[in-house]
Amino acid sequence: MRTKTKEILEGVKNGEISVDDAVLALKTEPFEDIGYAKVDLHRKLRQGMTEVIYGAGKTPEQIVGIMNTLAENGQGNVLITRIDSHVAEYLSGRFTDIRYFNEARAAFLGSFPETDGIGKIVVATGGTSDIPVAEEAAVTAECFGNEVVRLYDVGVAGLHRLMAHKEEIMTASVIIAIAGMEGALASVIGGLADAPVIAVPTSVGYGASFNGLSALLSMLNSCASGVSVVNIDNGFGAGYLASMINHMETKK
User: Fold this and answer.
1) b vs e for 66-91, b when ≥16 Cβ sit within 10 Å of the residue's Cβ?
2) Pseudo-torsion of CA 122, 125, 128, 130, nearest 10°?
3) What pLDDT does 100 receive?
4) Beta partners for residue 198, in sequence order
5) What angle do CA 198, 50, 113 make, to 5 degrees?
6) DSSP secondary structure, 190-211, as one string
7) Backbone angle region of 142, left / alpha / beta, with phi > 0 → left and psi within -120 to 50 → alpha
8) CA distance 18 to 73
9) Dihedral, CA atoms, 129, 130, 131, 137, nearest 10 degrees?
């Protein structure tokens, strides 16, 4: 892979290939096949973010193999989601520069980047029970260079708790609203903020919440403008999308 990249760059230097053609060639550069995984080595070039490893269902050895492949190809920072503490302990025995976030069930290899988003990302939860999903969202956003403001336990059962944070809500670039039960938080925030709202339904709630389905349907049917919805308990997806929004630039 690196030999091919060098050939492309030398072609640009010698005037044999245009800069635009070189960028296109690099964007379509193939992955590296390591048997049990096909590691995307140019995700960062195409999308601005290195490939993220979804840890659930993978063995610790497989995760290490993918991490090594990314690191060997210049991907210094790697986010691993949905791993338990025993997997994190295994990884820490093989990588010195790795941090584990217990509530988020995520690990990060490398150094947190400087915050370079256009503004702040607010992560708000309806209740304390939603915090694990919120932490996955918040840590994901922080790993990709965003300043995150956490507003936890500000659900509609006590609306005054949310209203006490009007300034944070009004000045945010993106807001992630995380709630179970009936999922009303997203609609309330969507009616207050002028920023995009990413709603995350959680599986928190009693029987008729159907493990988050009730909150999902409520959020999908929100009457507030500017509310989008990710899947149940998908804190990572919300944090990733919020980071993309917070790094948007005008394309000419």
Assistant:
1) bbebbeeeebebbbbbbbeeebbebb
2) -110
3) 96
4) 176, 228
5) 80
6) HTT-SS-EEEEE-S-S-GGGGG
7) alpha
8) 24
9) 170
* Residue 251, pLDDT above cutoff 60: no
Tokens of 37: 């995984």
Put the strands of the sheet holding 78-81 in their side by side order.
53-54, 78-81, 106-109, 98-101
The answer to whether the CB of 236 falls within 8 A of the CB of 135 is: no
pTM of the model: 0.85
Q: Tokens in use for 204?
A: 């928190």
Return the SS3 of 146. Answer: coil
The label of the residue with tokens 């005037």 reads 15
How confident is the model over 66-119, as pLDDT tens digits? 999 888 877 778 999 999 999 999 999 999 889 999 999 999 998 888 888 899
